[in-house]
Amino acid sequence: MPTHVITGAGSGIGAAVARRLHARGDDLVLHARSAGRAKELAADFPGARTLVGDLADPDRLSWALSHQSLPDRVDSLLHIAGVVDLGEVGELTPKTWRHQLDVNLLAPAELTRHFLPQLRASRGHVVFVNSGAGLNARAQWGAYAASKHGLKALADSLREEEHAGGVRVTSVYPGRTAGPMQAKVHQQESKDYDAGRWIDPESVATTVLMALDLPRDAEVNDLTVRPGPGTGR
Ligand SMILES: NC(=O)c1ccc[n+]([C@@H]2O[C@H](COP(=O)([O-])OP(=O)(O)OC[C@H]3O[C@@H](n4cnc5c(N)ncnc54)[C@H](OP(=O)(O)O)[C@@H]3O)[C@@H](O)[C@H]2O)c1
Prior knowledge:
Radius of gyration: 17 Å
Shape: globular
Number of helices: 7
Bound molecules: NADP nicotinamide-adenine-dinucleotide phosphate
Number of strands: 7
Low-confidence stretches: none
């Protein structure tokens, strides 16, 4: 069975992806921000292993991982965790910028560095759940969009570097997807939140699994997923 290391498996898109892979019997290594959160994930996904490390503190991730037993084999590394805080450039403080850059960009880079030896050995797959904001930056979205534009650059460089060695790299760019993050965005936009208007996390999970399951003669580089007709845009 393939082994998947997944961040963000406790909520939204990450939970949907983890549920699908768990249901088909794949081995899961679920990353959690704290020991308490890891315990909850272990209860939700029987048989899954967990790894603890705060993505908001990428400088300490390597140290945190060096004190835990890491999987010998990693077939895929799925970067799904993320944070958002809206605000105009004229208002955003360095703390708000840094938090989004740490969680959304530096932590994925650091986790990728850490697991690359296993990924190279298995000719594995790295998937980055990016965002439409990783392709277009709009008013209020500066810090988040910068972190996601950076994540696109990380994925594109990694793909070029690792392609010859057989590691596949995919970026998925979802539009607004129902869940706690979207509820927070609506709150910050002072808008009413209606989950039914946005993409179901299960649909984004389907695109991630499609990329993972594609035969090795092909690689999905970039996949844009927008809310369907009749829903919000
Ligand atoms: N929702 C959208 O509209 C949307 C659209 C485009 C792209 N995306 C991207 O899709 C991904 C998943 O979004 P979502 O809607 O599923 O978000 P979500 O429901 O808010 O889940 C975010 C996940 O990230 C984890 N996380 C946040 N900060 C962390 C930290 N410091 N250390 C470890 N884990 C941390 C959370 O952990 P806990 O479970 O412990 O809180 C949670 O599991 C994100 O990268 C997001 O940027 C979302």
